């Protein structure tokens, strides 16, 4: 009689405080048998790399669905892949907004329930030395703060909006452009997210405009001081892409950014996302 075997998660750590490489085959990943373990590892490690896994779009969508609820790019949209590139020819509708992705950020700070995770696969890499994707573990960054700072920061609320990130790449926008960004919305969020699991993470990044009740300078010191802390070497991992790599990040406990690349170099990533499961609180 044959005994049915189930796939076991095979993974190795990249850095002590962030990142693991998952070494299972495509078939094992698509079987869904290790989906629960992958979700747990994602929360524990912030970023998971599936080196040269070479998913097709259909396989990426199917794998995403084994892990949770597929999040379409737009409300009510189809279950499809989003093209991530700064090339306006390839991406006329969102290349402009993706300029903000060159700075540390969390996806979906406009929503009450931000997406749980994003999965990015590399179709065409940029030349080596450009276009890495950086990740920072905002759980670890919070955990390693001194106790008095934790107590202070837990009290703060921060206004976030895409308009704040506009100034990173266009310091002197026209009023019409600023009004356009303002129309996307803004939202007040806690600086420290107290997760249902009991863990806590920092909610910062280039969408953070101001700490409520602070002067502009005090506010900038808090927001930029924490970004500087959280993006220090021990909390970060920079992924250099090869064709076929898939990288998934926990959007609730990390920040990320694209490192600079030539928008016309052909760099092309395909993204899927998982629907969020808990509000910022
Ligand atoms: C994103 C993003 C970074 C990159 O897809 O949300 O920020 O390296 N991408 O392209
Ligand atoms: Mn992003």
From TrEMBL:
Domain TauD/TfdA-like, residue spans: 12-272
InterPro entries, sorted: TauD-like_sf, TauD/TfdA-like, TfdA_dioxygenase
Any one GO molecular function term: dioxygenase activity
Pfam families linked: TauD
Keywords: Dioxygenase, Iron, Metal-binding, Oxidoreductase
Domain of life: Bacteria
Family label: Belongs to the TfdA dioxygenase family.
Identification of the protein by name: TauD/TfdA family dioxygenase
Organism: Novosphingobium album (ex Liu et al. 2023)
